[in-house]
Description:
The chain is α+β, with helices and mostly antiparallel strands. The chain has two domains: 12-95 and 134-237, no CATH class; 100-131, no CATH class. It is 27% helix and 20% strand. It has helices at 53-67, 108-111, 135-147, 194-206, 210-215, 221-237, and strands at residues 12-16, 25-29, 32-38, 75-78, 85-89, 100-104, 114-120, 126-131, 157-159, 165-167. A five-stranded antiparallel beta sheet has the order 1-2-3-5-4, with helices on one face. Strands 6-8-7 form a three-stranded antiparallel beta sheet, with no helix packed on it. A two-stranded antiparallel ribbon has the order 9-10. The longest helix has 17 residues, at 221-237. The radius of gyration is 18 Å and the shape is globular.
Amino acid sequence: MPVPDLETAELMLTGRITTASNATFLGSIGGAVVVYKPIAGEHPLWDFPNGTLAHREVAAYLVSQAFGWNVVPHTWLRDGPMGEGMVQLWQEQDAAQNPVDLVPSDRVAETGWKHVLEGQDENDLLVALIHENSPALRRMAVFDVVVNNADRKGDHILAMADGRRHGVDHGLTFHSEHKLRTVLWGWLGDELTTDELDGIDRVSAGLHGELGRDLADLLSAEEIRSLAARCTRLRVAGRFPAPRGAMPAVPWPLF
Length: 255
């Protein structure tokens, strides 16, 4: 059986993901299971230009490819039953793994995971937000700083059975103003590894070549300049940044 052309073969809708804030559908292209988010189904936001979320999702994939870390699953723009939109290959995550979790505060030390913040649950008991301390999740945290991810929720991290970690839902990225909101603050102030610094260098170099040309079709010139500036600041600092500004440092809800 010939392999379908993911950009031109018919996209058939098979269901809807009702928990998403924008219109999000499951579909298939040949035998490939995909997620489809039509631009027509994007709700207007006060701080992001209308009709740009699908483009930002594709831009996030391109930057992920430039890093060389496979953070974002294959994502592209194409026509579909509800018009042009973002299409992404579906990833079957391992339900037994939770890279980000809430645990009783007195159990944080025994997990060996990174502690992010504490709060109270519905029973007024102290709980802590924690996440695993893995190279794959560190890479995602670096990626989020570079793309200025304003919505890294715990459920936007897909744990794969083989240890890989995929990030999804990147519509709120690449704003020219600081918007970083993430649950992955556990490495605050830690030095970046050589691998992480090399990844930033690959993105910076790519902005002067093919990556920059491809992003010009998806983002504004100001957003691309801001992306380059974030790469430079992070490379010079050489360590994970701290939250800054008046806006919340974590998304809500957390999951």
